[in-house]
Amino acid sequence: MGFAVVFLVVFVGYVLGRRNSLGAGGRQALASLVYLVATPALLFDRLIVTDPAEIFSANFVVIVASALLAGFLFFLLCRTLLQRNTADSLIGMLAASYANAGNLGIPLAVYVIDDAAAVVPVILFQVAFYAPITLTILDAVNSSQQSNLLRNLIQAPLTNPMVIAAIIGMFFAFLEIPVPQLISEPVGILAGASVPLALLVFGMSLAGAPVLREGARDAILASLFKVVLMPIIAGLMAHYIFGMQGHALLTAVVLAALPTAQNVNAYALRFRTAENLARDAGLVSTLACVPVLVLISFLLG
To answer: Distance between CA 224 and CA 259 in Å, rounded?
Structure first.
């Protein structure tokens, strides 16, 4: 039922996109609203009633380790068998391991595993650690880029609205400070807009999406690493190292199986490297994650 709800709302977004019902700037405006307001509100709303120990738990270790391992393995594959340069391989590494935790992860977390706060470790790890360090290395490799990028990458996590909302929410949760009703109620109203709007935006983005062109093999391989290998790694680690079972195991595997984030495409465009790989991996992994997540839910749900 959770998947059916998600897919039906995505389909409505797809129809809106195909008909261009919201105009040329409609999708971007909705996406900005989701990113800047609704999703941070949802994270804050969920975190203030979540035990902080549930966030920084074994699940956080599984998320970090599975992403780093899957990404590093794809980096080695790019450098050795595929004979790609270092810059392209770094983008490929992100395409194979950087999850769409915000736009798609939160709606799936709400409807499939019934826990919006489950994606917080993914967002914090990727925005505050994974992307800054990887892109700093990429900047060093591509010396023609701006010299102040390192400073910008350090500042980026501190200006990301999702990270800010997560930090403030965890502050209230850690100190067990009650949130005034004057704040909690409007935040709750805004939070309610996050999931449906994010799914509509995602559906609109699928309308007229570019098909595989140059570098199709790399994109398909990166997608397989992201939605197949990474959840396998996460599942094995969660079960055999941390002894997870039931809902905890399902959560770890579902989060690992999320598709490649659109952020990777933005990074590739910024450095003008592996642009086709980043764009196509986002599309292919998004489509491929649907049957994968259904299978995961059937096996572990």
So the answer is: 10
